[in-house]
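The records we work with from here on pair a chain with its fold. These numbers are not coordinates but entries in a learned vocabulary of local backbone shapes. To see the layout at work, look at the sequence and tokens printed below.
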Amino acid sequence: MVINQPARTWATLPIFVAVVVLVAAVGSVAAMDAGGQYLALRRPAWAPPPWLFGPAWTVLYVLIAVSGWLAWTTRRDPAAFVAYGAQLLLNAAWTPLFFAAGQYGLAFADIVALGLLIVANIVLFWRIRRVAALLLVPYLLWVSYAAALNLAIWQLNPS
């Protein structure tokens, strides 16, 4: 179904923003002392400084919300939005696994699955609206880097 009604189109943007803010809030609550925990971990030399995560994720969450909204307002493909919702759930699960539970191995499994779902989401959004798919590419790149960092931290900090 193709949606072309401008007022109705803009009205759904706050819903996508709210969903992504909820995902970010789950991570924030689970990572109350993430900065301190991160600094206490043995990290590879290529690990980013703690201050970089907040700005990076803020930009990525905006891109994720806009991407979903653009695809939704173009065509409501159920498979694409199952992938979109599933990757948001895995995104929300990573921070509690890594920081709150200290389960670096489970967090790594989560982030690998997250990356695969982002790839699926990009492919499915590409069929709907290419710009929506392209907006997810920085997210995939960051999650890929974060997966490598997660793996390195897991190896350097065996539980």
Observations:
- The first helix runs from residue 6 to 11.
